[in-house]
């Protein structure tokens, strides 16, 4: 049976039922680990005895990243330089990492690539892939993942990690919450497989809406014309290369400034996960695609602009949370299935024992002229029919709520006091020549110095030790103090 699907919105990713099947194979915790590995640009390798499972797993993992995109088509603009009579290409999009659901045997050397990737290989090459030291290997048949010791896998920040795990458990295992009741309520029926798939995707949409809340307030758009126009025919060769050099040099510092503002206001300066996500290529494509203030909006734009407060309010109320998840899932399902009467073509299945026949009739030759006539008739009907997809209606992108800290106020105060205590203890150990204790506390003190309060505490503590006539340091003490001051100045 061959199905023909028509989607309503081309910006939303299409995954059919791949995500749900992926969770059946791997489980909640393993999928969350692979999800974090892909977002933090680690190498992920699937292996299975089924080619279909490899393709479905890669497609599902990519779909969970929406609104981020792992693959992005390169776009170019052409500019003609009259003076030199040559054609130049200005590349303004972002390249993509290797994405190969089924890797041929002749290309196994690609697994040694230094760049992140999502690749699937057949299980017959199991012995070859175990030699890879920096690759996260997922066994789809056994349901296990192998994370090498040299890889530090950053996890989602709390409380988002716990909320996501709880939401996935409620959707995939609804009876688990009432399993210990003496008189359990009537058993909750699971949704259809395709609807469960959309409910899982809706949970990750809610996750990204909370993670990127207020991201538009940290964007700065610099534009002189409606569309950038570069006239190369009036620019000298040296000036052209100087302009490109300045552009390359200035762009990273500008982006890091915006990211630092976002992380600081979210209270996640010390969080490795979000820092790696913001520095990744997928987020760079996200900013370039969703940064303009006037463009076509989709479900994620509406969610991050209007539904974040509702998501926070539903944290302690599972029934309301499930209701919101199903509302989002219904929109995702309608996007893939706008017409309940799906047009499909029935392909007859072979009869039982047909493969045992001695004389097998050859498949008849297809008439090329007749096929071309049918194609032309179909094109003529489609040109006169109204468009099935929703038109791209551009509008002003809503700014949404402001950037706020992801942590609760009480836990933020506790963590701030704990960081200050770590800085004070580290400085005391340095001046008391307790170098073993200093080595233990120095990494935590350096991480704490990313905060403004900890930097202020550092200056106060150093000032107190100067007043105590203890300003003379040996080489080891001087090295520790310089490292802390250098970290504070950065």
**Helices and strands: which structural class?**
alpha/beta
Q: Could you state the order of secondary-structure elements as H and E?
A: EHHEHEEEEHEEHHHHHEHHHEHEHHHH
Biggest pleated sheet: 5 strands, mixed
- Give the termini distance in whole angstroms: 61 Å
Beta-strand percent range: 5-15%
In CATH, what is the homologous superfamily of the largest domain? DENN domain, C-terminal lobe
The number of strands is: 11
Give the overall shape, derived from the CA principal axes: elongated
Biggest β-sheet: strands ordered side by side in the sheet: 5-6-2-7-8
Within the CATH hierarchy, at the fold level, what is the topology of the largest domain?
A: Rossmann fold
Total of domains: 2
Secondary-structure arrangement, i.e. CATH architecture of the largest domain? 3-Layer(aba) Sandwich
Number of helices: 17
Helix content: 40-55%
The CATH class label of the largest domain is: Alpha Beta
User: Regarding quaternary structure, how should these chains be classified?
Assistant: single chain
The value of Rg in angstroms is 28 Å
Averaging pLDDT over every residue, what do you get?
76
User: pLDDT below 50 for ≥5 consecutive residues: which ranges?
Assistant: 1-11, 73-94, 228-257, 409-414
Fill in the keyword field for this structure.
490 residues; Rossmann fold; five-stranded mixed sheet; 48% helix; transmembrane helix; DENN_Domain_GEFs; UDENN domain-containing protein; membrane; guanyl-nucleotide exchange factor activity
């Amino acid at each position: 049976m061959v199905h023909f699907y028509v989607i309503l919105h081309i910006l939303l990713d299409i995954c059919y039922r791949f995500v749900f099947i992926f969770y059946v194979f791997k489980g909640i915790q393993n999928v969350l680990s692979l999800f974090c590995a892909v977002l933090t640009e680690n190498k992920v390798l699937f292996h299975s005895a089924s080619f279909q499972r490899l393709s479905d797993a890669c497609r599902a993992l990519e779909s969970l990243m929406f609104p981020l995109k792992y693959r992005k088509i390169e776009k170019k603009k052409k500019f003609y330089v009259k003076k030199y009579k040559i054609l130049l290409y200005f590349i303004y999009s972002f390249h993509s990492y290797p994405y190969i659901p089924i890797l041929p045997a002749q290309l196994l050397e690609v697994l040694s690539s230094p760049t992140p990737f999502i690749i699937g290989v057949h299980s017959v090459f199991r012995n070859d892939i175990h030699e890879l030291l920096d690759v996260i290997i997922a066994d789809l048949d056994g349901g296990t993942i192998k994370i090498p010791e040299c890889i530090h896998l950053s996890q989602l920040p709390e409380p988002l990690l716990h909320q996501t795990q709880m939401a996935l458990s409620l959707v995939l295992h609804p009876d688990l919450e009432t399993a210990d009741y003496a008189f359990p309520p009537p058993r909750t029926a699971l949704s259809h497989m395709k609807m469960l798939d959309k409910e899982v995707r809706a949970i990750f949409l809610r996750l990204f809406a909370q993670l990127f809340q207020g991201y538009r307030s940290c964007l700065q758009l610099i534009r002189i014309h409606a569309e950038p126009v570069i006239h190369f025919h009036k620019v000298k060769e040296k000036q052209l290369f100087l302009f490109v050099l300045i552009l390359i040099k200035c762009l990273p510092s500008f982006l890091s400034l915006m990211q630092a503002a976002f992380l600081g206001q979210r209270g996640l300066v010390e969080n490795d996960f979000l820092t790696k996500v913001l520095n990744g290529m997928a987020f760079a494509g996200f900013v370039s695609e969703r940064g303009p203030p006037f463009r076509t909006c989709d479900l994620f734009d509406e969610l991050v602009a209007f539904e974040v407060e509702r998501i926070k309010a539903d944290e302690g109320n599972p029934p309301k949370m499930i209701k919101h998840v199903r509302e989002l899932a219904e929109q995702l399902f309608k996007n893939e299935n706008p017409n309940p009467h799906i047009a499909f073509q029935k392909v007859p299945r072979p009869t039982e024992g047909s493969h045992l026949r001695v004389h097998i009739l050859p498949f008849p030759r297809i008439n090329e002229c007749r096929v071309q006539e049918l194609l032309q008739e179909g094109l003529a009907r489609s040109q006169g029919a109204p468009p099935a997809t929703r038109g791209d209606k551009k509008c002003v992108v809503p700014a949404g709520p402001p950037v706020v800290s992801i942590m609760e106020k009480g836990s933020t105060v506790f963590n701030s006091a704990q960081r200050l205590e770590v800085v004070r203890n580290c400085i005391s150990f340095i001046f008391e020549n307790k170098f073993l204790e200093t080595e233990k506390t120095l990494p935590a003190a350096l991480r704490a110095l990313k905060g403004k309060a900890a930097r202020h505490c550092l200056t106060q503590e150093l000032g107190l030790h100067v007043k105590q006539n203890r300003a003379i340091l040996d080489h080891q003490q001087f090295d520790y103090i310089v490292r802390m001051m250098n970290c504070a100045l950065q």
